[in-house]
Protein: AMMECR1 domain protein
Organism: Desulfotomaculum nigrificans
Amino acid sequence: MSVVFGGIMPHPPIALPEVGGAEADKVMDSRQAMLDLGQRIKQSGAEILVLISPHAPVFGDGIAINISPQTRGNMGQFGAAQVSFTCRYDPKLGTEIGWQAEELGIPVIDLDEQIARQTGINLQLDHGMMVPLYFLRQAGVELPLVPCSMGIFSPEKLYSFGVAVQRAAEALGSKVAVVASGDLSHRLTPDAPAGFDPRGKEFDQKIVALIKSLDVTGLINLDEDLCERAGECGLRPIIMMLGALDGLAVKSEVLAYEGPFGVGYMVAALEPTGRDQTRRLLASLQQERKQKLAQLRAKESYLVRVARQSLTSYLEGHWKDPASYDVPEEFARGAGAFVSLKKNGHLRGCIGTTAPTRANVVQEVAYNAVSAGTEDPRFYPVRLDELDELTISVDVLMPPEPIDGVDQLDVKKYGVIVRRGARSGLLLPDLEGIDTPEQQVAVAKQKAGIGPDEPVQLERFEVVRYH
């Protein structure tokens, strides 16, 4: 036995009449489609449900599985505490998934009460689980559950986790249904919860078309800027679910798509019909990833190469002396510099200096790269095995100049420094999610521990950004 069903379900709480009341009827197509999907899971003979949610506790260094013997949840957060479920965990499948994932190089974190206390996370089922379970139970599906979080990994690693689910099902001889919980763009209309972006609709159209044609490679290679601008939360769970169908012939059908509240909701059923060796994609996806990384490394600027080499040598235990790097003439001066690390589009560390603290820009970058990777208090230190997944950028700061007010700021061109007494905060220019000078100043104040209504001195600066 193996994976006998794959599904995609949205998770709008408003779709529950107990939450949305009459508004729930505006997503009637989705509600009916989710009931249909539940009936199909029943007909598949599935014995266990693996449910992947983007709103379960997410870790930067692993995919989490809630291993509580019984998991509970309710919709009290949305005013409907009477909607509550208790699900029985399937320990055999959960443990086997962990083993198979580790074999594929995907760390799995077993979430239990001890880890919950240590990290302050909540083991209750989140709404990304509760909404799909509501409709599955209405359709008569009450299966043992393996609740999984999405991972913040590269797409082929997310796909690998799905492959691990399939291998675990085969090892145990279990019939498993895998459902990805996720909404599409949250930016379809001007009144959408995450604001409006015209590319939101483009993203949703592409996802629907790619699922209909079961184009896994197309999904994995979606333009990163398009995905970021869409403001979605479903792509990673979908890719994880698709990995569970690796090497299988699949009938893929989109049962519904709509977006009445500015958020895209898609329901899709992916039903295996047999084996198909041409759809064994993991090895080719891994090879494509290696080639893409090699191409990116070849294009890295000198300062980015310095940052990468400095951090790599430090993590390997033989840190290269920052004074030993060649110093091109353009970087011989002193200047403040910030090093930013991103992992699969998500910030992984960013630390810098607002004024020169070293002999030249090259040394500034070498020191700050190590700080960004190991001392940013917002993140755990970067591990050596993460380095290949990191993209690095370096911002070299020009001297700041005082300004009289926010009307002299341009978030794309200028960074900002706010000062009040001994407190100061800095925000770089051209950052995702910072669209107005007022936002820019507010975030800089927050970083400095300055109250939103406290007056500050403002300075602006330009940067030269290196990739």
